[in-house]
Amino acid sequence: RPSEAPGALVFEPSGAPSEAVAFLFHGNFERAAGDEAAVRFYLQQGYAVVAIEYPGYENPGSNDVFALSPAYPQAVIDAAFATVRALRRTRTLLDGRSIGGFVAVAVARKLLAEHPSAAPVEALVLRSTGAGSAIVRVGRTHAYDNRTIPGEFPIFVVHGTADEIFPVAEARRISPPSPRGEILEIEGGMHNTTRFPSEELARFLAKNGLKNLR
């Protein structure tokens, strides 16, 4: 069972504590506990997992909180960043799905600004997210920009070719920050049905020295 921390659920791998942690940032109308495939995957790779919970998401099925306040996306980012700062370990990976991809990149930027001479992020994984520009809800527009990712860490982008929320062209506009960036397109995958890329992501982590980190 996961333990709870302010703004998060924390899962520990079996055996000795891990020096590596994967932070999961979920999408709109979702909850921290809902990304079971990702939690299982990272635990198997030897990571602890921190599933970030956004403030105001107690009832995401009927409360599109991103629409209610122009300030809300920044509140999500600030809350997520505070949780990451409190719970990050020696090696830190950020994984964002859908809108969570924008939050993950924003948190990466804040970590890099706070530690400009260090490597506070080991890798970034973006699943079914966009390159940016804007998200529009109920007449309000919230700007995001993932077209240029900060840092020199490895980045893995996975996107379904039939994504109806963020077209696959959005994934192609994301610029990896280093030659270690990869984009995986899953044929026929839709926004909420694209499979978790366990085999491909495991190879990516192994290639970059980020697998079995106990």
Q: Can you walk through the features of this model?
A:
The chain is an alpha/beta fold. 27% of the residues lie in helices and 25% in strands. It contains five helices and ten strands, in the order βββαβαβαββββαβα. The protein has helices at residues 36-44, 72-87, 99-114, 168-173, 198-207, and strands at 3-5, 8-11, 20-25, 48-52, 91-97, 123-127, 132-137, 140-145, 155-160, 182-186. The strands form two sheets. An eight-stranded mixed β-sheet has the order 1-2-4-3-5-6-9-10, sandwiched between helices. Helix 1 links the parallel strand 3 (20-25) and strand 4.
Spans where pLDDT lies below 50 across 5 or more residues: none
What's the helix-strand series? EEEHEHEHEEEEHEH
Shape: globular
What percentage of the residues does DSSP assign to strands (E)? 15-25%
Which structural category do the helix and sheet elements fall into?
Answer: alpha/beta
Determine Rg (CA atoms, Å): 16 Å
SSE blueprint and pairings:
Blueprint: E1 3-5, E2 8-11, E3 20-25, H1 36-44, E4 48-52, H2 72-87, E5 91-97, H3 99-114, E6 123-127, E7 132-137, E8 140-145, E9 155-160, H4 168-173, E10 182-186, H5 198-207
Parallel strand pairs: 3-4, 3-5, 5-6, 6-9, 9-10
Antiparallel strand pairs: 1-2, 2-4, 7-8
